[in-house]
Input
Amino acid sequence: SGGSNASNNGNISSDANKNIPSLLKDSDGANYNPKIGDCTGNLESKFFQGIDLLAKNESDRVYVYSLESGEVIENTLDSCGTGITIRTANGDRYSYCHLRSGSLNYKTGDYVNANSILGEMGSSGDAEVKKLFLSVWHNGKFVDLFMYSIFAFG
Output
């Protein structure tokens, strides 16, 4: 009887899942699939040029990872709450907002490697729920992340 030892029904094992680069991971290190919020891709407002990625449960501990390497050019404490903006070598900017107060691992001027933990998803600033608000600018223009989110998070 030449059967397979795999009994995961085609699913990626949690150990293999821990090694896949991801924007969000849970407290066990597995990729975290958030809910997509209603704040997505508003080109008219500079404050809403991005996408809300919401925790499924307020009790979930979710770590936010850097998508790209670069220099921290800004730490924010305004309506973005506890947040960070990273500028890559080619000038692209990635902003991560509403992180849990006190969870930031980097400050302005630091260099961040891709796939490094920036902090934890939170509800700082004007956020009413635990979430990450992510904004990306490429060649000085806002990138609409809504279609990306459909492919990345289903």
